[in-house]
Write a structure and sequence with these properties.
The protein has 10 helices and 18 strands. α7 packs across α9 and α9 (249-259) packs parallel to α10 (277-286). A 7-stranded mixed beta sheet has the order 6-5-4-3-2-1-18, with helices on one face. Strands 7-8-9-14-15-16-17 form a 7-stranded mixed beta sheet. A two-stranded antiparallel sheet has the order 10-13. It folds into 2 domains: 2-153 and 202-300, 4-Layer Sandwich (Metallo-beta-lactamase, Chain A); 156-196, no CATH class. It is globular. It has 301 residues and is of the alpha/beta class. The structure holds zinc ion (ZN). Zinc ion binds next to α2.
Length: 301
Amino acid sequence: MEIVFLGTGSGIPSRERNHPAILLKYEGRQLLWDCGEGTQRQMAIAGESPMKIDDIFITHWHADHFAGLIGMIQSMNLEDRNKPLTIYGPEAELFVSDILELGHWGVGFPVKGKELNFDGNEIESVAKYEDFSVFSIPVNHTVPAVAYCFKETDRINVDLKKAVVYGLKQGPIIGKLKADGSVMHKGKKIKLEDVSTTRIGRKITYSGDTTPCENMVKLSKNADIMIHDSTFLEDVMNEEKRRKSHSSVDEVAEIAKKANVKKLILTHFSRRYHSLKDFETSAKKIFPDTITAKDFMRMKL
Ligand SMILES: [Zn+2]
């Protein structure tokens, strides 16, 4: 699988960084997390096609995270997309229908908004695909907002060497064991966990815009990668910035440590920063396995 960072800036784009958008590619599937203004052009530069996007997940309805939808849906329409498009997010039905009302464009394929819960601290199962699922959890911003989690399905494999010990051989009985979780064989009950190994699926989380919050720790527990809003360095954080509901780099590094993630990727940088060196240095003091995202950065897993 691959993660393509299409935009790593925040409220106002800069020469180096576009508005937020992250493309997740997994065995023929493509998901887009946020769609800031100009995302389709970023995709063209990256050699990616919006036509391949299956579904879109918006963290919240601030323009830097969704304004690219209008142009992108229009392009999909011009390219004769007929595959339905679902746009997930808090308050998604309202905002997607508003977007579809803008301008004279007559969208020729089904586009629908799917509401997600943005209150409380429960993880919500959002969408299920062949080999992975997407989950969300409410986060803390000035408007309803959620964070997302990509979770590869855990794979349970029967270890034939272990199975032989119980007198089982490759064949329909193994299929039954996998389907039912246990089988009766020669008068004995054999459980799947007695003869199998589990490969835990990979997990990637993305905070969207948020202050540091426990829900992000919960969603990101033991994640392979956590991508997090890191708008400011600690020294400029003050009441006003906190009120704007973002996170500082030090706060994010603490979240990564608490959630025990393997790798932290910082994103959504304020345009006041040209160099991100101080972000990396600060974060690494607290959480060593940290990198800063930049536009068009690709990560293969
Ligand atoms: Zn933002």
